[in-house]
Design goal:
By secondary structure, the chain is an alpha+beta fold. It has one domain: Alpha-Beta Complex (Nucleoside Triphosphate Pyrophosphohydrolase), CATH 3.90.79. The protein has 4 helices and 6 strands, in the order H-E-E-E-H-E-E-E-H-H. The longest helix has 15 residues. 30% of the residues are buried.
Length: 158
């Protein structure tokens, strides 16, 4: 990491693992990285906002999903650092990465209410995939986070 970025803080964030009735995981393809990388919904925590409230807000903002039931707050905080080519660009250059609290939720609605064409769209496409596949489709700098989350979720749903 370049010296001018090493003192930047990590951004507080949340991630949401959304499972459908078949225990498939919701993933979406980002507009700003349209290669074949997919991610689970995630985002920043606003000042004065608690992590769970941020998770519900981010989920709705990114996917229009409201019909979920909280299964469990994942008992670990994960972190990732941005790669050099994104430092100083993402989040207006204020952060070097993110530390995230993750929440496992059950989607209790129907697929036709999922809408990624939101006011400020972040995604081009979405799909349900097997939990085993989340580490195959994620961008490399988030891979370790997804490995941790994958293992935690397996232990909860099995």
């Amino acid at each position: 990491m370049e010296n001018k970025f090493k003192d930047l803080p990590l951004r507080d964030g949340v991630g949401i693992i959304v499972l459908n009735k078949d225990n498939k995981v919701f993933v979406a393809k980002r507009i700003d990285n349209p290669k074949n990388f997919w991610q689970m919904p995630q985002g920043g925590v606003d000042v004065g906002e608690n992590f769970l409230a941020a998770a519900y807000r981010e989920l709705e903002e990114e996917t229009s999903i409201k019909n979920v039931k909280l299964i469990k707050e994942i008992d670990v905080v994960t972190t990732y650092l941005l790669p050099k080519h994104l430092l100083g660009i993402i989040w207006k250059g204020k952060y070097k990465g993110q530390k995230q609290k993750w929440f496992l939720m059950r989607f209790i609605g129907s697929d036709n209410e999922i809408n990624i064409k939101t006011n400020k769209p972040e995604f081009l496409d979405w799909k349900w995939i097997d939990l085993e596949m989340i580490t195959d489709v994620v961008v490399d700098f988030k891979l370790e986070v997804y490995k941790i989350i994958q293992k935690k979720v397996k232990n909860i749903i099995n």
